Amino acid sequence: MSLLAACGVAALGLAATPAHAADPVFTLAGPAEIGLRPHPGQSGTPQKTSVEFRLVNDTASAFDRRSTFTIDLSGLKGIADVALAKQQGSDCTLTEAAVTCKRPALWKGETGIVDLDLSAAPGSKAGATADLTVTGKAEGATFKAATTKVRVGGPDLVLERAALKEEQKPGDKQNLSIVFANEGTEPVQGVVLEMRTTHGIDLLEQYDNCSYSEDTGEGQPLNTAWSTVQCLLEGEYKPGSVYGVDGSLTLKAAPHAFADTLTYAVYADGHQPKAAKTSRKPTGGKKLAVRERAAEASAQSADLDPWNNLQEFDFRTKNSADLVAWPVALAGGTGETVRADFGFRNNGPAWVAELRSGKSVARTDIVIPAGTKVTKVPAGCHGVNADGTAREQTLGAPRYFCSTGHVVGEREKFSYPFELKIEQVVANAAGSVSVGQGTPEGTKGQPWDPNHANDKTPVVISAKDGGASPSPTATTSPSPTATATTSATPTATATSGATANGGLAATGSSAGMLALGGAVLVAAGGGLVLAFRRRTGAHV
């Protein structure tokens, strides 16, 4: 065979060899550093500190091969004792030399590898350190190791719980007293005081060494947010010393306050949560200061648990919120598809939020008039049978349940845009919109809503028998398409409904004009349509 021919065969052979995809790379993770309370000697049992190691799989799919993870414990000898925490999710074994864990597969996302309980070893010295490194091994994969520095002793900020009243009225003011101590073995250089309040609580004072921000999520209105204040308290905070913030921190219940929460915490500078990008700083020339107090002022015992850096308080304000379902009046010819914006508004004065549970605040129960068929359903709504029981098909249901998120702001409007096809005229057809607390049967009045008379309202569709009308699609709102996530954007809304028979009423060509708040029913092209007078500056 010639050299040229041989090269050609080799080239063909290389081209025919299948390419192997690169091995996936997984990242192991754990805390950068943990501190251990020094061993108490003969006076008691050493306190445990937990450390969690996990794996991050941000590849496109799961990894279905067996993996082994190892933590070398040789560096901890004489510094820390190790135990496996209870309820391990992995197959783990512990020896004096190492922790070994096995996983049959690695799913996409985060996977817990092992939780360890560490405590200072007898005879260990404050300031002693060691590295705890977790590594991984599997055929066809690469793992990036993670290392946690273990330190005996260190600073320990402990925050006293302030004496605040839970029950309040709109406009009530309370002073937030901040007292904290360093109960650790090392000083802290600079402390950050963080205070977070929900929508119904205002912090009145402004200080130049504080930053202020609203923690709104993308696309969310302000009343779903927490307000955050972070104040840098410069200086050295010595072990065994107690400090108090020297300056007024006044909390005021807003007119819309209802069920609200305050959290306040102290962090070593550099270890505080990241502030919002839109934070602002005042320039009024006033700074929040700190003064040292007598040691006996400490309210809590020594503890390296980071949770004692933070306190949390729930307020209950004597207030109410009035949920109002708005009436819907539509018009169209037989065979025509019309749009209907069902929903409700909160007339306030309070906002309402399920901050702890995250549950939906309110449900809208929509009963569709007979003779019409739902052809489009918005997000946040699902079809049910006439008795409220579950059904598989979403379109064409006789009834719909729509749920809010865990926040309903004061003066906020929730609009659910449906599309309905008018199939036939049914005498005395009845439809309705109800709002309230969700139940298996539908809704019931919320205990904080003082007026249940406006929780339910009729749905009226006026149709002319004898074929589809060429008139434009009817709608109940002139605003752009709304979503179930809502906003408090002012929109003109029909505020009173046509009586007719409460359903799909037949109408003659001589039908007159029917006023509906900001809307008027007019004759056009042989059928009825809605004409709207837009109201500027209105707030619903």
From TrEMBL:
<feature type="compositionally biased region" description="Low complexity">
    <location>
        <begin position="466"/>
        <end position="499"/>
    </location>
</feature>
<feature type="transmembrane region" description="Helical">
    <location>
        <begin position="511"/>
        <end position="532"/>
    </location>
</feature>
<keyword id="KW-0732">Signal</keyword>
<feature type="signal peptide">
    <location>
        <begin position="1"/>
        <end position="21"/>
    </location>
</feature>
<feature type="region of interest" description="Disordered">
    <location>
        <begin position="433"/>
        <end position="499"/>
    </location>
</feature>
<keyword id="KW-0812">Transmembrane</keyword>
<protein>
    <recommendedName>
        <fullName>Gram-positive cocci surface proteins LPxTG domain-containing protein</fullName>
    </recommendedName>
</protein>
<keyword id="KW-0472">Membrane</keyword>
<keyword id="KW-1133">Transmembrane helix</keyword>
